[in-house]
Amino acid sequence: xxxxxxxxxxxxxxxxxxxxxxxxxxxxxxxxxxxxxxxxxxxxxxxxxxxxxxxxxxxxxxxxxxxxxxxxxxxxxxxxxxxxxxxxxxxxxxxxxxxxxxxxxxxxxxxxxxxxxxxxxxxxxxxxxxxxxxxxxxxxxxxxxxxxxxxxxxxxxxxxxxxxxxxxxxxxxxxxxxxxxxxxxxxxxxxxxxxxxxxxxxxxxxxxxxxxxxxxxxxxxxxxxxxxxx
Length: 230
Ligand SMILES: [Fe+2]
Known about the structure:
By secondary structure, the protein is mainly α. The protein has a domain of 147 residues: Ferritin (Up-down Bundle). The chain is built from six helices and no strands. It starts with 5 loop residues before the first helix and ends in a 55-residue tail after the last helix. The site of fe (ii) ion has 5 residues, from helix 2.
């Protein structure tokens, strides 16, 4: 759609969000059904209810603007859902698949947070206070959903794989002083400069994690995870 002013852009962005949320209401039941952990299933079902409320809020925003919510397909959400469907189809170890579903869900949340943030800014600039209020409520829900996903006790389901004996041997050889002299025949890169020291990342702020992990994962409570850990 060719947009000539900020109001048209806001309506177009809201139509995109309406399509995104509607697609999600159809996709989430399948994700909930696939998850093997009852707690994860419950969390997804809870977000489905929230998403239905978000669709209603968008309809209210369109009423405020005297516009029709339909007429656009959100290709971004369509792509994210296609990837999630593929993850489900590929299948695999149930606990690992759960970790994959959490990762897909977090992609969706980040997409929505960005879209709602922009739409709220446009509505604010246009002085559409009621629309701002509606979008702000949903934005906070999306941020809370993302925070819950951050707190999900993933390390407990991410069991380390059996170490590869070849890799172990190579690691031991690399650690020995003779390795750098090339005497054991395992290291071929002795001439390379030593790898740069890894910078220690600051500890993530978990102070807003109010989600309590399931009982069997208490030992991996929020605060013990590294950022980006699956
Ligand atoms: Fe949403």
